Amino acid sequence: MADAGNVTALFRASTAHSPSYSALNRAATDGGRPLVDFCIPCNPYFPTTEMYEELGGRLRDILTYYPSGADTIAAELSAVLGLNPQTVVMGNGSTELITWIDHLLVRDALAVPVPTFGRWTDQSMETGKRVDMYLLPEADGFVLDPAAYVDFVRARGSRTAVICNPNNPDGGLLPRRSVLALLDALQDLDLVVVDESFLEFADAGPESSVADEAVLRPNVIVLRSLGKNFGLHGVRFGYLVANPGLAGRVRAALPKWNLNSFAETVVFMLKQHRHAYDLSLRQVRRDRQEMIWHLGRLPGLTSYPSQGNFVYVRLPDGVDGAVLRDRLLAEHGILVRECGNKIGSSSRFLRLVVRPPVDVEHLVIGLEKVLYATGDAGLLPVPYGSGNPAVDRLVMRA
């Protein structure tokens, strides 16, 4: 399917993040079938086919002309979301906003639970700040204990604290009341950031958000991603919500045209397609439960509860995630996120993006064949029966 040597070399060369999908496609030189992507956490059901057709029909204008200023685009997004535009700042992806938060608002030390989204650890380290990492306990399923985290922040003397809710890569979600209690306990800090980039995929959806509280508090920022929710990572757009003074500090640092015409076009399409977007989130939630059930049937593999559009799994004892990743890619055309380069994680863990059932079936068969095949072909030297005769016949033929 792909030139396995070229593709796996890209993973070995990346010390912090997975290689881009474009880089992987360029490395796949044999013209085989496309990758089945369980790595990049996009919404597989949005945009709709009709939206893609509309975007395609407007492609010439989108590529030819300047976008409107960021304030115009943010005002439209605010109208769709029911927010005050003075409290909203849009960025060229949430990572741009993380960068500016670090430059403008983080002084000497930032606390963050790990494992989590890598930019929250890497960004401040790159600018010479101390990053205080609170290790989420594997024995507790990587669940964040807010009181223990507050104690950690106090003990370390951190002036900025971050939580991701749901957390990436494990998908753990604190209820709104717990997040508010944490904000109350840390109200004397310079800044508390609640990264809600994956919150739209949670069962409770926006009801778990604390964005309405952020606009009232002097030291709180809520960060949201649009690319993940809308299935458009390549467009690069996200936004933050904060009180007008705090939002204004970030907004003043950004270029007037930091957003592109694709981002503007999609934002101005949202009102018309909001129902389809809501349906897409419901489908992802259903798919997540089904995917967790299927993964839970694989012997020795542990799936953690998730409220994101991904599932964090611990591999059976003795299995190296990098070896499994490379074989799934080379033998089955399946791309997965092995977490050995995530601080606080290891190569015993994968983060698997929620995908439609037909793709999950392909993933499960690939995992069965690589992990449990008899002889030298399997990574686990144990007899295996899935309880599904059709799957067992496939495994035995591997």
Question: What is the fold's blueprint, element by element?
Answer:
Elements: H1 4-13, H2 21-27, E1 36-38, H3 49-57, H4 59-64, H5 70-81, E2 88-91, H6 94-105, E3 109-114, H7 118-126, E4 130-135, H8 146-156, E5 160-164, H9 176-185, E6 191-195, H10 211-214, E7 220-225, H11 227-230, E8 238-241, H12 244-253, H13 261-296, E9 302-303, E10 310-314, H14 321-332, E11 334-338, E12 349-353, H15 357-372, H16 389-397
Parallel strand pairs: 1-11, 3-4, 3-5, 5-6, 6-7
Antiparallel strand pairs: 2-8, 7-8, 9-10, 10-12, 11-12
Helix pairs in contact: 1-2, 5-13, 6-7, 13-15, 14-15, 15-16
Describe the protein's architecture and organization.
The protein is 44% helix and 14% strand. The chain is of the alpha/beta class and 398 residues long. Strand 9 and strand 10 form a beta hairpin.
In a nutshell, what does this entry contain?
The chain contains 16 helices and 12 strands.
The span between the termini is 17 Å
The counted number of beta strands is 12
Low-confidence stretches: 389-398
Largest sheet: 7 strands, mixed
Order of helices and strands: HHEHHHEHEHEHEHEHEHEHHEEHEEHH
| Global Rg | 22 Å
- Overall 3D shape: globular
**Order of adjacent strands in the largest pleated sheet:** 2-8-7-6-5-3-4
Total count of helical runs of at least 4 residues:
16
Helix/sheet category: alpha/beta
- Tell me, rounded to a whole number, the average pLDDT: 90
Q: Level of helix content?
A: 40-55%
Strand content: 5-15%
